[in-house]
Amino acid sequence: MALTPGTRLGPYEVISLLGAGGMGEVFRARDSRLGRDVAIKVLPAGFAKDPERLRRFEQEARATAALNHPNILAVYDIGALQGSPYVVSELLEGNTLRERLASGALAVRKSIEIALQVMHGLAAAHEKGILHRDLKPENIFLTSDGRVKILDFGLAKLTQRESGPQSQALTEDSPTDPGTVLGTMGYMSPEQVRGLPVDARSDIFSFGAIFYEMLTGRRAFHGPTSADTISAILKEDPPELAETNRSVSPALDRIVRHCIEKSPEQRFHSARDVAFDLEALSTASTSAPLKAVPAQSRRRVRLAVIASAVGLLLALAFFAGRFLAAPVAGTAAPEIQQLTFRRGTVLGSRFAPDGQTVVYTAAWEGNPREIFTTSEQSPESRGLDIKDAELLAISRTGQLAIKQHPQVSGNFARAGTLATVPLSGGSPRALLDNVESADWSPDGSQLAVVQFVGGEYSLQYPIGKRLFASPNWVSDVCVSPSGDRIAFLNHPFGGDEGSVMLIEKSGKPRELSSGWLTLQGAAWSPDEKEVWFTGTRVGGNRALYAVSLAGKERAIARVPGILTLRDLGPQGRVLMTQSDERQVVMVMLSGQDHERDLSWFDYGIPGGLSDDGKFLLISEAGEGGGAHYTTYLRPTDGSPAIRLGEGSSSLSGDGKYALSRVVGAPTRLFLLPVEGAPKELAIGDIAPAGGLFLPGTHRALLVGTEPGHKPRVYLLDPDSGASPKPILPEGVHGIAAITSDGSLVLARNESNQAMFYPLSGGAPLPVQGLQPGERIFGLATDNRTLFVGSSGELPTKVYRLNSVSGERQLWKEIGPADRTGSETIGASRILQDGKAYFYGYVRDLSELYVFRGLR
To answer: 132, 286, 655, 832: which has the fewest Cβ within 10 Å?
Structure first.
């Protein structure tokens, strides 16, 4: 239908044609009732021939009009003229992002500014259940006064035929081409390409592709044909941002990469989360590195985000940025009170029944863990004379559940003896061994526990009734206020990655929130409608989130550093620790007389030393490592590290290859050559947990788990292309060493006993003299002498143990000279008969805070 100047559509008088395309024509018109100019988009008449389609168009157009958000094109009215539906919207002055990109990449600052506004608009729409489905530069408008508007919101799905993708002609995007049921070529998510159902994460993928284009000036996914573009979307990652824009920081690169993950589970789960990270990045880049002023006795510090300040106000502005780098829109800044002031690590912490007293665990100035009390009215802390223990929970009647003598039982797990003791004083009463986590029932009569027993973590409620079990770490069990539900954190990949889980007392477990790269700390909201937790999907700095029982996530607060939720108290008070946590990598080389710090970024995990001692493999698992960790090869002469690829890895003896595990859904395994491109290995349904190269070869022993089975050891030959071959019985896991001739592997059975297993078959050989809880750090070239010790102490005493006779002698003590903030050594290996070794250790310096006003 052709409209000419002067034509009237109800109260609207057409003034001129603004543009035309496959989606219809856009006219400038005058609203005679309100005396304002508007834009009228007239859709093709064919849309009105299907009554159901027209009904749904009107329904979603009305929903979009109800959004009323400054970053979404305002829709004023809808109607129809001669069978052609039309939409009346605000009239914008400026140009589209596509037109702006015609002159090349945008500045980083401008790109972030646009991205933030787009994310705020998307978040507002997604929270009302409205998806865009055709986000592209043509649908992002930059107004003359600096605002960003998302166009055609909610129209993409309803203005397309509902047939499958095979009946749609996929077209290259252009200002005039219509979208299809799948979206616009080059910006579609993988699930759109496959014709699968989509949700908010599909819009996030499209945004990620646009964001990449803003920063680089070139499209993230593009090929000479539609088939090539589809292949790029499904299988290829765009080039590194730094290749075309060196001003892009690693943190910004990680945000973009996290948006365009192939699997929806590995992307940001909400636009609010993306905005959260972008605002935190923006704040961190502009805030001065000042120390926040601690709260004093009987005084609360109220924080507010200050747009511009000088002198003393600058400190307050930073304090707000430090603790609320990205406050939730529409909420007031909370009050924050610091409770601890000494140098060390704060662990398990809870509000006491009176609502004012706080009980917490800390290891101050390198001393063992101890339980203290403090209050919000005084900065002083008092020891309870409960040492070498960690607080787990407090009942309504004032009974403490504590974990005595905790020892390392996994990468993050610290199991100990569960005991109870009155807050008023007395001697602990032991209840159960090997407990990782515990919480009281609402009436204080029963305990829910996670116990490490029989090689698995068993969730029990009450004690003795198993509700859930996993071979990997299960943490932060918490009983709901009604006592009918249990929330907990499940870490199925061996680290602290994982999911927020829910289980009814008589039901099956279900996943509320997944894809978290680090996840620690959980608590129920008082109304039992949400589980609050701290985690992150990018880097290592955990933020505070909540998830509803229906799985809807929302971001609450973020700080520069690592947050760990400890408890939710009365009157909306939140108890959290904020940590400055780093993992340091230390190396001793043959012929040297002192250890050397070869750390690269903030949280390095050493994964192997080449036989010649020239190269150390490091997996960066913190903020510097990105969404899936990053593997670096670090020359031991101190030269800059070489990036090999994503994941956490082990190194071949010749230093030419790394075997890299990339956590995801499913977890993937790669061979990372020092020279050449990464190669994904075909491992079927096996979920890999790690492995070691066989001496003198590029074959490896892989520990993994197939669905419905227990962990076991597989033989992997990357050069053959064949699937891994199981070579040891189910339940055998935890490879500690391989003999120099490659004939025996030292691993642990289902009972966690260390045994030498012949790779050619036959009965395993026991290890004599190994004490409970001891780790194996290495195997000498005589294939019988082990380097063993307890990593739960610093410095760590390492012994030479004859695995046949059981005789031992002290070899050396290793560990940092300054033990403050450190309790154990992490990944470590002793090589070359003790002439060389490496280890990592974490230094966690933390403080305890009460937050008020978070919601």
So the answer is: 286
